[in-house]
Amino acid sequence: MRLKPEQLDRFQRDGFLTLPGLFSAKEVALMRARLPRLFAERVPENFREKASDVVRTAMGLHLRDDVYARVVRHPRLVDPAMQILGDDRLYVQQAKVNAKEAFTGEQWQWHYDFATHHHEDGVKKPLALNLHIFLDEVTEFNGPLIFIRGSHRNGPAPTALDLVSTSYPLWTVGNDTVARLVAEGGMEAPKGPPGTALIFGDIMVHGSPANMSPHPRSIFSLILNPVGNAQTRFKRPDHQHHRDFTPVTPLGDDCLAMESAAA
Ligand SMILES: O=C(O)CCC(=O)C(=O)O
Asked: What is the CATH number of the domain that holds 107?
């Protein structure tokens, strides 16, 4: 799959790109069907909310489930990433589902991913791409991601490590910087039915509020990073930044339609 020139222009201008209807209802149903088993596992890959035992993020999914092993090689994710980066040697840095359970799903503070990739993992350049697939309908009510348009344009913003706000350690952007960036570019919260996809870059400032609604919100997230920009520090566990730098090879477009994946 190739992005059109106007989609590439929008990605370069805004720092993120929404791709409505990228995955079918059937493909999403297959991905969703695997979550109850994965979330039930008591493993370090499953991070639970600070205020409850509910799973907040479930990592390392391509090593834990055959459907997600295909999703991380799906050409509708991998091809656009290769196209944007002009590089066909990308490895799976992270593969997870961020679940934001009805009523209890907690916030993701304002941040950009590279701050954590750089400070924790010694990644040199902000090249990684984060590719999302909505597994539930994302609305204004159930904790959508909010992007600060154009916040990628002036290089990495100052950050500080926040170990307090949630159960997940995150390098976050302070309120003064957020206010300045919002004044410059404004905010946007992409919404849409299951199967909608999003692509955003490593210094794109974003966050998401708590889910106060009665509607759950799960999103699959794949981070692909060029092999030439791999991590140089190995203090975080493998599921937070995978150490297998083998470049991903895209599968066929029907890889989620194959019968064996439905087992
Ligand atoms: O799932 C969310 O609401 C936030 C996810 C996020 O910030 C990320 O994938 O970097």
From this structure: 2.60.120.620
